Amino acid sequence: MAALALRVCEQRASQAEEIVATLKRQLQLITSQATNSAGTAQTSQEVVRLQDENNSLTKQVEALKQRLCYLEIMNGKKQVQLPKVSSTATSSNKNDASPPKAAKTVEQSPTNPDNKGKPDQKKEKKQKKAEAETKKNAKNSKPIDISRLNLKIGHIVSVKKHPDADSLYVEEVNVGEESPRTIVSGLVRHIPIEGMQDRLAIFCCNLKPAKMRGILSQGMIMCASSPEKVEIINPPEGCVPGDRVVVEEYPGEPDTLLNPKKKIFEQIQPDLRTNDECIATYKGCKWTVKGKGICKAPTMAGFNIK
């Protein structure tokens, strides 16, 4: 029943549109004739009649269209508003066979198993690169002060003279790591071998390892120093290998490895000195091991620490 009514409405709408078109043509013709003949009362009346009839038919057409839409909806037909036809629409139809760009994007998304995780890998690489750059910038922005040095308490397990250098000792030092470090020190002329053996000292542990006469040195023992005399800086009592030496006024975590090109140690070293009480200081602030005390030289006051 609804289908029949739908067809009737469609026919009526089509007929009404044809009538409206015919009336418009007649109206234009009559208006033209009325203009040419200076118009008569009869022609004017005819024009008014046709205009009224045209308006009435237009309203009927609109009503029939609305009725048609209603019946189509009741029959399950979806109403879609048609876009305006333009010249660009015609030309775009030629490319309908090719897949849209949006579809390509979906096909290449990480959820597509055919991509074998490549987009994820690229994204992960970019993320890692950004994180590395951030860490690098953060490291470069750190202030250059004693907090950058990894100063640790170390126990000299064994010591011997360097086989190829009369002025160098080669020490095996426990600094609280899995295995001892080999450290080469130029102290032969200043400290007897007995004064080196089996003692605690302070070592800088994040200098870049360097070969000294063929033996790789992995750190440096910290000493008060002058051309005539050198004394090892003593840690406070109760220290154990691995304890960190800090300056409380300059908090911060040490670098994993000092970059020799940046010459960070060289910039810090001039401010490392013993004070009038032989206490090791940085810019006048004391070296300490937290909870255990201060670090100092045996007798040398007012000397650089190297």
TrEMBL record:
Keywords: Coiled coil, Cytoplasm, Protein biosynthesis, RNA-binding, tRNA-binding. InterPro entries: NA-bd_OB-fold (IPR012340), tRNA-bd_dom (IPR002547), Tyrosine-tRNA_ligase_regulator (IPR051270). Residues 115-136 have a biased composition (Basic and acidic residues). Residues 6-67 form a coiled coil. One of its GO terms (biological process) is translation. GO terms for cellular component: cytoplasm. The keyword Metal-binding does not apply. One of its GO terms (molecular function) is tRNA binding. Residues 80-143 are annotated as: Disordered. It is found in: Cytoplasm. Residues 84-96 have a biased composition (Polar residues). PANTHER family: AMINOACYL TRNA SYNTHASE COMPLEX-INTERACTING MULTIFUNCTIONAL PROTEIN 1, TRNA-AMINOACYLATION COFACTOR ARC1 FAMILY MEMBER. This is tRNA-binding domain-containing protein.
